[in-house]
Sequence to fold (316 residues):
Amino acid sequence: MLLAEAGSAPWSWNLLNDFQEMWSYPFMVNAFRAGAVVAVVAGAIGWFMVLRRQTFAGHTLSVVAFPGASFATLVGIGVGFGYFGFCIAAALVIALLQRGSRADRRRGVAGGQVGGAQEAAVTGTVQAFLLACGYLFVALYKGLLSGPESMLFGSFLGITTGQVAVLAAVAAAVLLVLALIGRPLLFASVDPQVAAGRGVPVRLLSTVFLVLLGAATAEAAQITGALLVFALMVLPAATAQVLTARPGLSLALTVLIGLAVTWAGLTAAFYWDYPLGFFVTSFAFAAFLGAQAVRLLRASARGSAAGSARVSGGLA
Fold:
C-alpha cells in the first residue's frame, strides 16, 4: 500500500503509536478482521489438504480464482461472486472427473499408479483450461481493467464491512461442515482403504472436502490474490506438521501460524509499498524454514544422546 494513499507516517518502532496510527483507518480495521477470518479458514482446510496430499488440487483451485474474478469484472458483477462461483464449480468438476481414477486405484498397485496419474492429469487439465479462460476474459474486457495485480497478488484496499460479514458467514459455514465431518475425514485421510472397509463414505467425504477447499480458496484469494493463496493454505500447515505429529496440536499451530503471518503481512504492507501477498508468503516461508531448523536440531540432539548412551553402555 502506498503511504501517500493512507497518509500514514513511516514505521517508528513505537509499537503502540504505530498500531494506533494504522488502525485509525477503517479499511485497515476491516483488513485485519478479514485477514483473521481468512487465516483461520485457510489454516483449518489447509491442514487437511496437506494431510490428504491434495496440494495440487489446492493449487488448481487457487489458480481458478483468477478467471473467476476476471469473469465477474467482465460481466459487471461483484468480484466475490466470481471467486466463489468458479472455485466451487471447479471443485465439483474435479471431484466428478476423479471418480474414475479412484476406481482404478482400488484395483491394485499398478492400477493405483494409473489412477494417480489420471487424477493429476484431470486436475491439471481443469487448471489449464480455466486459466486460459481467465486470460480470455481479461482480453475481452474493453474498459480500464485496473485490478489484475490485486487479483493475482492480493490487496487489502477497499475491504468493506459488508465484505467482512460475507467472509465471516462463509467461514462459519465452512468450519461448521468441517467440524461435522472432521473425525471421519481424518480417518479417511490417514487410511482411506480401511475407512472404506469400516463403512466410512470416503468418496462423499472427498467431494465435500473439495467443495470446502474451493470455498476456502475463494475466501483467501480475496486477501492474498489468486497466485499466492496457495502459500497461505500450504505453508502454515506444512510448518505445523513438521513441528508436531499430534493432530490436534498441529491443527491449532496451523491456525495460529496462519493468523500471525497474515497480520504481520498486513502490517508490513501498510508501511511498505509492496504487495500484501509477497509479505504473507515471505513470513510463512520463514516460519517453515524455522520449523525445518528446529527439526534438524531435534534430530541432531537425539543422535548425540543415542551416541552418548552407546558409549556409556560400552564402558559399562
User: Anything to note?
Assistant: Residues 74 and 141 are 5 Å apart (CA to CA). Confidence is low (pLDDT under 50) at residues 1-8, 107-115. The chain has one domain: 3-315.
